[in-house]
Amino acid sequence: xxxxxxxxxxxxxxxxxxxxxxxxxVNLGQVTALSGENHMxxxxxxxxxxxxxxxxxAQLFEKLLGQELDPMTNVMVTVxxxxxxxxCFQAFVxxxxxxxxxxxxxxxxxxxxxxxxxTPVFVPLRPKAPENGKMMSSxxxxxxxxxxxxxFNERTKAIVLNSPNNPLGKVFSRGELELIADLCVKHDVLxxxxxxxxxxxxxxxxxxxxxSLPGMWxxxxxxxxxxxxxxxxxWKVGWTVGPNRLLQHxxxxxxxxxxxxxxxxxxxxxxxxxxxxxxxGKPDSYFVQLPKELQKKRDWLVQSxxxxxxxxxxxxxxxxxxxxxxxxxxxxxxxxxxxEPYDSxxxxxxxxxxxxxxxxxxxxxCGAHKNNYSxxxxxxxxxxxxxxxxxxxx
Length: 394
Ligand code: PMP
Hints:
Pathway: Amino-acid degradation; L-kynurenine degradation; kynurenate from L-kynurenine: step 1/2
Number of helices: 11
Keywords: Aminotransferase, Pyridoxal phosphate, Transferase
Largest sheet: 7 strands, mixed
Protein name: Aminotransferase class I/classII large domain-containing protein
Mean pLDDT: 92
CATH architecture of the largest domain: 3-Layer(aba) Sandwich
Radius of gyration: 22 Å
Helix content: 25-40%
InterPro entries: Aminotransferase_I/II_large, Kynurenine-oxoglutarate_AT, PyrdxlP-dep_Trfase, PyrdxlP-dep_Trfase_major, PyrdxlP-dep_Trfase_small
Order of helices and strands: HHEHEHEEEHEHEEHEHHHEEHEE
Strand content: 5-15%
Bound molecules: 4'-deoxy-4'-aminopyridoxal-5'-phosphate
Number of domains: 2
GO molecular function, one term: cysteine-S-conjugate beta-lyase activity
Distance between the termini: 33 Å
C-alpha cells in the first residue's frame, strides 16, 4: 500500500450500497442496478464491479488459474485496462520506489509510474538474429537473465509484465516467466501483469498466466480488457484479478477516483462472458474464432510486407506486427541536427506519401534507449480488410 492511501479507505457510498444490497431496502437516494435487470441498466451498480460481471469473471478465472476466487474481493472492474494500470501504480508505488519495465513497452507504464512518484527501471528484450534464411519471430527477442536480475534491489516495488506484448507480439515462454517469478519471490516484488491480449495467441502457442506459477498468486495483479477480448475497444471495460491483500488497495484508489464504471457496458460484457463460458474450448467460441481469423490477417500482412521489402517480425500474439525499415533509409530525407528517431520520421513520411499509418517502435522505449531501436515500425492488423488504405487503427 502506498502512503497516499493512508486514511482514505472509507467511503460512505460503498458502505451504504452494500447495506442496501444486503437488506434489499429501497434505496431512494441512489437507485442501483444490482439485479442486472434491463430497466436498471441506466442506474448505478456496485462500485467495484457490476455483480453479474464480477461473478462471471471469477468463474472464468477460477478455470484459468485453477483456484477458487471470491467475485467480491478477488475481482474489480475498471474503465478499461488503462484505469486498472493507473490504480495499480497509485495503490502500490511511493516516492523512491523502483518499477521494472521490460522494453519495448506499452507507453503509459512509464508515465504512470512517474506520476505515482516512482522511478521506472528499464530492461530491454534483446533481439537475436534468426537462423539463416528464416524470418525473425517475436520469440527471437529475449530477456538476458543476468541483466534482468541486476535490476532487482531493495527499492524494487514491482515489475510490469505484458504478455502477449504490445508492440512486439511476444508471448513469454514458461522459462522466461519462471525467471521473472523467481526474482519476484526472491526480492518480494509485486507483478503487474497486463494480459489484455490473452486470447490473441497464434500457431497453437499457449498464454501462460504468471499468477499460476509457484509463489506468484499472492503478489500478482492480473489486468484484462473487454475491449481487446471482444474486439470492442470503445467500451472501455477492464478488470483486475488478484488476492484481496492487493485488491483492497486498488479498490481504495478506484473509489477515490472513478468510483463506478458504466453499468450497461458491464452488463453487456457479462453477457459476452456468459456465452463464452458455455462455449469454452468449442469451435464456436469467440476466443477460438478470433485468433484463427487474426492469424490469417497476420500471415497476409507478413507476406505483403516481405514482398514490399520490409522485414516483418512474425508476432506470436496480439494484433501488432513490427517491420524492419532499414531498406528504406534512402527514401526518407535526413533532417540535419534533429534527434527525432529515424522510425518516427519514416512513419510520418509513410502516412503522408503512401497513406499508410504505423507507429514508430522508438515510441515504446524510454528516452535514453529510443535511438537504439529506431528502425522498426508497428502495424496493426486487427481491422485489415476493413480499412485497406490509410486510417490509423491503434
Ligand atoms: N495494455 C496494453 C498492452 C494495451 O495495448 C492497451 C490498449 N492499447 C491497454 C492496456 C489499455 O486497454 P483498454 O483499452 O482496455 O483501456
